[in-house]
Specification:
This protein has nine helices and eleven strands. The chain is α/β, with parallel strands linked by helices and 288 residues long. The chain has two domains: 85 residues, Rossmann fold, CATH 3.40.50; 129 residues, Rossmann fold, CATH 3.40.50. The radius of gyration is 19 Å and the shape is globular.
């Protein structure tokens, strides 16, 4: 029997409808949420991603500001743009699109962002708050992809308490903060973090009730690794050439759908949730 698809597009549409109502209420109070995007260079994937963010904002009534710097921009130019967005009264949250071109100090640039306007939830202060958070609600912005994963599971009523979760990949945007969120009091999952130096990755995955693949290796996760009925979330994306055409593929072999109980498609699963969570962070920032 084929796995139930975790339809991120449909859930993100629901969330954006909820946010649109919240934005109307905020505007009635004289508050207008605003998203800023800051992009350096001409990477097609980054430009497509940023354009999608502005479309999302238009759908829910959020004001948006786009700053694009050329590929030959200097770090001083980027620093000036960050300072402008920190001070912009019409921007309640903004993102610095990653990756930055070679030669930029990514960590230094992220640290320049006003933590209260960090729509991606990647500022060291906000990640640090995630580390020390206990059972209390986290009020700082959450990293968008991990938050989107938890929201997608919640909307499908997939329980996490006491479940064994294997997270493949330890990147700062997904793997590491996701482990913290899953381990948080009130969520209470048991997390195994797997990476390139882990031994017997397949064996660890076979023990997992929920598998999150976020490493960016095409079709890495094989069907024989999956416990029958497990929940599998395919997060990583790789561009591959097929018959002379570039296509996007996920980390999970498509045949996993014949073993798993639930599977998020890629694209169309976690990606739309990431974008919805970004808009949610911007609206929440306006509400504070």
């Amino acid at each position: 029997m084929a796995a139930v698809l975790l339809d991120g597009k449909a859930v993100a549409k629901e969330i954006k409808a909820e946010l649109a109502k919240e934005v109307i209420e905020l505007k009635q109070k004289g508050i207008t949420p605003g998203l800023g995007t800051l992009l350096v260079g001409d990477d097609p994937g980054s430009h497509s991603y940023v354009a999608g963010k502005h479309r999302d904002c238009a759908e829910v009534g959020v004001h948006s500001v786009r700053i694009d710097l050329p590929a030959n921009a200097k770090q001083a130019d980027l620093m000036a743009a960050i300072r402008d967005l920190n001070e912009a009264s019409d921007v309640t949250g903004y993102i610095l699109q990653l990756p930055l071109p070679f030669g930029f100090d990514t960590n230094a640039m992220l640290e320049m962002i006003d933590p209260s306007k960090d729509a991606d939830g990647l500022h060291p202060i906000n990640l640090g708050r995630l580390v020390v958070a206990g059972s209390e609600d986290i009020t700082s912005p959450l990293p968008c992809t991990p938050a989107g994963i938890l929201e997608l599971l919640h909307r499908y009523d997939i329980k996490l308490k006491g479940r064994q979760v294997a997270v493949i990949g330890r990147g700062v945007t997904v793997g590491r903060p996701l482990g913290l969120l899953l381990n948080k009091r009130g969520v209470d999952a048991t997390v195994t973090s797997l990476h390139s130096a882990s031994e017997d990755i397949a064996g660890s995955i076979r023990q997992a009730d929920i598998v999150v693949a976020a490493l960016g290796v095409a079709h890495f996760v094989k069907p024989e690794w999956i416990k029958p009925g497990a929940v599998v979330l395919d997060v990583g994306i790789t561009r591959v050439d097929k018959d002379g055409e570039t296509i996007l593929v996920g980390d999970v072999d498509p045949l996993v759908s014949e073993v798993a109980g639930y599977l998020s498609p890629n694209p169309g699963g976690v990606g739309p949730m990431t974008r919805a969570m970004l808009v949610r962070n911007v609206v929440k920032a306006a509400n504070r």
